[in-house]
């Protein structure tokens, strides 16, 4: 596992912000090796986990969804998010940004959220962006996803700002102002 030393602080952080984590065999069979979601609770199997940051990434998907939908989330977080929100609103693309952004930008939001969480915890971005993550195996220097976030052109921080979890930053600072500190600072870690 990449960055095993980060696993305990990540689990503590997730518990502290209200995202349930269970360690054991329930982590098998998920979208990512060693991580699975059951009724909005993250299950992790450390022996098969590729990298500790994968836990943060999956938590990011849960964190960006309003709390009332979390128990409907399972192994396919994007499909489950889309279905839960559409069932409530009757629309596959609701107008409320808090509901629309997880549908339209969920993957980017989870990437940005996990990066901000790693920095908040004092963990290296490499615990999230390791060789093989996000289908990048060969690169020089920082992982391409990390470079995209740090250049200020990644879509995730913009979407997080649009739902009030952080302030606008980078290229997207010109698109709006919500009075919040800029990404990667987070005003809140989970949606209510």
What's the layout of helices and strands?
Layout: H1 7-16, E1 21-23, E2 35-38, E3 41-44, H2 53-63, H3 77-89, H4 97-120, H5 144-151, H6 155-162
Parallel strand pairs: 1-3
Antiparallel strand pairs: 2-3
Helix pairs in contact: 1-2, 2-4, 3-4, 4-6
Describe this protein with a few key phrases.
single chain; three-stranded mixed sheet; mainly alpha; globular
Alpha-carbon distance between the two ends: 32 Å
Q: What percent strand?
A: 5-15%
Uncertain residue segments: none
The level of helicity is 25-40%
Strand order of the largest sheet: 1-3-2
Largest sheet: 3 strands, mixed
Name the quaternary structure. Answer: single chain
Q: So how many helices?
A: 6
The averaged pLDDT comes out at 95
- Tell me the Rg in angstroms: 16 Å
Structural class: mainly alpha
Number of strands: 3
The ordered H/E elements are HEEEHHHHH
Shape: globular
Notes on the structure:
The protein has 192 residues and is mostly helical. Helix content is 39%, strand content 6%. It is built from 6 helices and 3 strands, in the order αβββααααα. Strand 2 (35-38) and strand 3 form a beta hairpin. It is globular, with a radius of gyration of 16 Å. The model has no long low-confidence stretch (mean pLDDT 95).
Brief digest:
With 192 residues, the chain is mostly helical. The chain has helices at 7-16, 53-63, 77-89, 97-120, 144-151, 155-162; strands spanning 21-23, 35-38, 41-44.
